[in-house]
Amino acid sequence: VSDARLRMAASQCGADTASFESVEFAFGHAALSGKQGWVYVAEQHSRALSPALLWAGKHGVDSLNVLSEIDGDVLARRAPLFNFDITVWGVSDGQVIRATAAQPLAQVMVPDSHERLALMIETSGADVVREHGLLTGEVMGLEVCRVLNDDTGDEARLEIGVGAHDRETFQLVHGRDATVESLARVAGIVRDHRTEGSVPHPLNRLAPERMLRHRIVLSPELVGAQQLQPVEPPIIRMNVKDEMPCVALGSLPGGVPVVVVCTASIDVDVVAFGADARLRTSPDAELLIATHANNVTPSLHKLAQSLRNPARFVEVSPVRR
After folding, report:
1. Which residue of 40, 50, 102, 285 pairs with 269 in a disulfide if CB–CB is 3.0 to 4.6 A?
2. 20: how many CB neighbours lie within 10 A of its CB?
């Protein structure tokens, strides 16, 4: 995004761009005008709100304007969750308008024809996971199968593999009909690789945030919770191999509801993502952000405290390899 495009868009919002001072911003382009900040998002649009707020904090900004061509409605939903003056603008074909907040995603049930295959997943030793109408099986947080409609669109079929390419390869080698035995065999291989003490391998490097969720659901005391169960994220994960925070819902000792968001890296957008997850899952719950030790910077701590309903980080030691 060029400086000129930022100035042109900001001028449509009534800004005096003559006073703009360009400042570097990792997700696009930014400028200061006194205590007012302007950010034009050019990449990872839905994940840009926390980085924009971190940028604002670094530069002493009192009010922040965020311009985005994509996912402005998601950013507008998340902005009021922070105790900060944020205006989100949508940019389309050079026209700039105030972004309207998207509603949280509606609940989509797994079709009955797919649900019938849940028992097969469970019998194989994999965990049954339901997210946004999709039924999958995970082993220690890694997807090993998913239920899809066949080519006719009429019949539900269980496909085995980690990701689309792996599922395709499995079918070429083993045929299209998955069995409990073949799924149990794959589940066993994945479990061996993801168990503590196993040698480094691609199967234990994938989905580390879901591995963390798997651990804390089994041992909620790791984050000070009483009980937890997996729930779907506030936005749809497009690819198994994409690292995206994942979510659990449960209670703290005493029965206080809690939403736990898991990430395994230094994720600059996890606070906005977590607040969005709580909004959709249980708006009045406590929000904990679970991550591996040494992933929490002072600025992320501060950002978590700047939510209208503050969140706190909980550090968990990673699995030893």
Report:
1. 50
2. 19
- Terminal Cα-to-Cα distance of the chain (whole angstroms): 42
Close Cβ partners of 200 (under 8 Å, ≥ 6 residues apart)? 321
Mean pLDDT of the chain: 93
Beta bridge partners of 21: 32
Is 211:219 a contact under the CB 8 Å cutoff? no
Question: CB count, 10 Å around CB of 53?
Answer: 27
How many angstroms separate the CA atoms of 260 and 278, rounded?
9
- What is the spatial distance between Cα 105 and Cα 134, in angstroms, rounded to a whole number? 14
Q: Is the pLDDT of residue 321 over 70?
A: no
C-beta separation of 183 from 160 below 8 A: yes
**Do 217 and 209 meet the contact criterion of CB atoms below 8 Å apart?**
no
Angle at 240 between CA 45 and CA 313, to 5 degrees: 65
What are the tens digits of pLDDT across the range 46-75?
999 999 999 999 999 999 999 999 999 999
Q: Are strands 156-160 and 142-149 parallel, antiparallel or unpaired?
A: antiparallel
Section 98-108 average pLDDT: 96
